[in-house]
């Protein structure tokens, strides 16, 4: 049943895919860390030929989009979330409040493979740190989870209070007074800590419905 639902969602995403215009993939430059992310994956086809796919996603776009390149040529684009059909499977992409939070190659047998970021991108630097200093990388990841959970615990009561102040809500279920009240300066620091922790999770393509709930709250 779960597999059927997953496949149905995948088919709906694939219907959004549009044909590309064939332009050449631009080389990733240093200043692109502020404008776009770039990922690669090598896929071997039935003729034992290696094909290099690249996925480019722009930051701060009015509508989140992804572009797919095959051996350096633009072949497709789609709104996010997206599922691009490729050799023996699909490349799936999901986004959250801080950009791409999941991207993978899923075969027809439901085996999944990771993509790798361009080495010059900020994700590429973060991956280098993860491989070169794994213990430091794990510590950073743990700290990000702790910050997000604390930030969620501090922010959620205030959010509930704000919701119950809406007249229609208060008339039906009453009001809630948060036992936690911070000044705007403190909430600003909570926001900043949550943003940094959320960015760390996004850079490592990690996402969990509970841990990353706080980032969705700030984003909304």
Structure write-up:
- A hairpin with a 2-residue loop joins strand 7 (89-96) and strand 8.
- This protein has helices at residues 2-14, 122-132, 134-164, 167-173, 184-203, 213-219, and strands at 18-19, 36-44, 50-58, 65-70, 73-79, 82-86, 89-96, 99-107, 112-114, 116-117.
- It folds into 2 domains: 2-117, no CATH class; 133-219, no CATH class.
- The chain is an alpha+beta fold and 220 residues long.
- The protein contains 6 helices and 10 strands; from the N terminus they run H-E-E-E-E-E-E-E-E-E-E-H-H-H-H-H.
Going across the major beta sheet, what is the strand order? 1-5-4-3-2-10
- Derived structural class: alpha+beta
Mean pLDDT level? 84
Fraction of residues in β-strands: 25-35%
> How helix-rich are the residues, as a percent range?
40-55%
Query: Could you name the ranges where pLDDT drops below 50 across 5 or more consecutive residues?
Result: 215-220
Number of helices: 6
Q: What overall form do the CA principal axes indicate?
A: globular
- Please tell me the total number of domains: 2
Give the helices and strands as they follow along the chain. HEEEEEEEEEEHHHHH
State the separation between the terminal residues, measured CA to CA: 32 Å
* Rg: 20 Å
Number of strands: 10
What does the main sheet amount to?
Answer: 6 strands, antiparallel
């Amino acid at each position: 049943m779960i597999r059927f639902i997953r496949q149905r969602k995948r088919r709906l995403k694939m219907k959004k895919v549009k044909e590309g215009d064939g332009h050449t993939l631009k080389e990733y430059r240093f200043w692109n860390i502020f404008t776009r992310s770039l990922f690669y994956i090598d896929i071997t086809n039935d003729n034992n030929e290696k094909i290099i796919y690249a996925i480019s996603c722009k930051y701060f776009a009015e509508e989140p989009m992804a572009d797919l390149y095959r051996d350096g040529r633009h072949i497709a684009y789609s709104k996010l979330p997206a599922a691009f059909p490729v050799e023996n499977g699909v490349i799936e992409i999901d986004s959250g409040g801080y950009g791409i939070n999941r991207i993978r190659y899923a075969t027809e047998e439901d085996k999944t493979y990771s993509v790798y970021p361009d080495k010059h991108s900020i994700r590429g630097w973060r991956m280098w740190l993860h491989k070169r200093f794994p213990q430091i990388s794990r510590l950073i990841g743990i700290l990000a989870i702790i910050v997000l959970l604390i930030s969620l615990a501090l922010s959620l009561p205030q959010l509930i209070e704000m919701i119950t102040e809406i007249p229609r809500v208060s008339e039906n279920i009453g009001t809630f007074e948060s036992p936690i009240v911070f000044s705007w300066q403190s909430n600003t620091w909570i926001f900043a800590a949550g943003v940094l922790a959320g960015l760390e999770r996004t850079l490592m393509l990690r996402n969990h419905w509970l841990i990353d709930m706080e980032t969705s709250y700030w984003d909304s």
